[in-house]
Amino acid sequence: PPKLSILNSCSPSQLEGLCSFLQLSTCPEPFLVRFCSWLLALSPDLSYTSAAILAEQLFLRRVLSLTQPPSRHLMAALTSFCSKYSHPFCRVLVAAVLQEPGEGAEQTKLICELVEECLEPHSVQLLLSQVLEVPLSEKLLPVLQAVLGRQEVLPPELLDLLVLTLCQQAPAFATSLSFAKLVTAVLTVYQSQVS
């Protein structure tokens, strides 16, 4: 709707207030899908800051509270939003999931699915750099595996950081089959760059 063009003229605090007034963080999921489709049609595109605020307001609480696989409506809304605003999405949501203590199995599966299906290459690189900034855990190994499954060309410095991290963390994962698969994947996908 034309009224949504107001999103482009709001300051960050006004946008947060508008999201709160519209109760976007708790709106029904079918409406969330429709709202995200409206965002895709918005012209001009949202600024990075506005998209980051909307990612937080629309999805953060829902994703962090997942205890079972996301509904098809939530998945459709996430995929839709990520298709256009994957960079701010990664900065806000992926960062929050990585910092959450505990297993976070559903959140990890969700990130893996988004990596495999809809993140753009530059966002996959951003996500990889975010993962490498936190201590590795069994929870994060599937995310790294999903990134490697994309077989993206990584900048040399990011590939070096990945290899260095795996080398440093190897003793802690001496009995981990997932870690062994991850190292094998790195050696397979990037064999020409890893000595």
Automatic annotation (TrEMBL):
Fanconi Anaemia group E protein C-terminal domain mapped to chain residues: 3-194
InterPro entries: FANCE, Fanconi_anaemia_gr_E_prot_C
Any GO BP annotation: interstrand cross-link repair
Gene3D superfamilies in the record: 1.25.40.480
This protein's encoding gene: Fance
Pfam families recorded: FA_FANCE
Domain of life: Eukaryota
Coiled coil: none
GO CC, alphabetical: Fanconi anaemia nuclear complex
Protein name: FANCE protein
